[in-house]
Specification:
This protein has 15 helices and 15 strands. By secondary structure, it is an alpha/beta fold. Strand 14 and strand 15 form a beta hairpin. Helix 9 packs across helix 10. The longest helix has 32 residues. The protein is globular and about 65 Å long.
Amino acid sequence: MTSDSTTASAADAPDGDATVSNVVLVTVDSLRADAVSPYDAERHSPVIDDLADGGTVFDRAFATGNWTPFSFPSILASEPVFARLGDIGVDESDTLAEALSEAGIATGGFNAANGFLTDHWGYPDGFDEFESFVTSVGSSVYSRYLAAHPTVEAWIQLATSPVRRFGSKLRGDDDDRPFLDASRMFDVEDAATEFVDDADEPFFLWIHYMDTHTPYVPAPRYIREVSDGIVGTHQMLHAHARTSLGLEVDERTLRELRTLYQATVRQVDASVGRLLDGLDAAGVADDTAVLVAGDHGEEFQEHGHLAHYPKLYDELIHVPLVADVPGLDGGRVDGHVGLDAIPPTVADLLGVEPSAEWHGESLLPALRGDAVSTRDSADDPAAEPTDDPVVSVTVRGEDVTQQPIPRSLSDGDLLVSARDNDWTYVENVDADAAELYHLPSDPTQQENLAANPGERAQAVIDRLKPVVDAHAELLRERGAAAAAERGEDGDDEVDEDLEARLEALGYN
């Protein structure tokens, strides 16, 4: 690719009216689709709602993994996890940032301290400016303990919130700073705003938020916004205490956890609003496309657990994907899409040739109004769909809640799912166990039709199982080749500070 490719833009396409010079990609950790108002009208995310009103909402967008390191190879390199190195990184991948940078586009990436999105796994590659905000946790016993036990720090900050609130009022400040500074929301905001102010067009900006990841410790004002006004901040101590002590999660605790989670969603929503204000202040809002996506979802005991353990149900892989592109009317897209479509879509918007190595296809036709397939497989479940199903992957150890996150295929059983508009097929490839769910009749995926399939269910299995098996075979082949190349001494060692930050996210 050469810089000449930047002279083409979406505006030059004969069937499109988009005028895009820049793209901002906002990814939000642990953001499930029904947590934002474009997907659930009862939610409160007015900024994302405004983007959706003027843009395009992909109703069936799916992550390719259940947690960040399994999903991000698709988001920033349009390839499945384990597809190249046999591990969770993108170090030798053709990343989106590399493709854009080679084409002469300024690139900036700012990650709010997620240790899996760092230089250790190749994520800065191609970015002119990159900051992961994974800093030293300090040498004192106290600082290292808090880094590894963020819920304890949340308790401390919750308990001191009245003092902080009183101080904010005295200073005339908004009460919008999150309890837990580890979320690094304002650092990311400041870095992104500075990048926009300094960058020459065209540019690509990626921002990743961590506020919606456990533990949920939003600023008090956002708790008040998403609750009925009766639930007080101190009552949230109840939820943190019970979960950290491993006590039973009763209905009250689950309700409080959901309230805290929705408050963090609103907190991120407000931050996105300030970023959009920054684009406007810099005079680039009218020719900047904005994409917002979750990297995976979050479970609230729909299948027996909290957070995002190794499972492939919709609460963990159905994510929001909203795109507001200047010059395009937008609307809602019903057909299923995977997050590996993000790199070719961004490249397409900026007039850059996509890498031949990328697995996904551009969504620009859908953004222009050309429909993604909405064929209802219930009409003919054995028929070949127009679009391939979205394939997602996880690796599960002996116990569902086993940590750390698997970093290679050898760390547990490989689970692969194929998801289209109406059906989810999940197979534990190593244990030869399968699940099948029909979403229109069973939206929470509770009735496993693969246990005793009728003719209709068997036809779907016959259609989706080869997709799953082919993907598993690809990953096994790549993983074996990578392991052989690394040899016996190829262990993936992580430095002490990074391990501490991963432990702070709950990964030992």
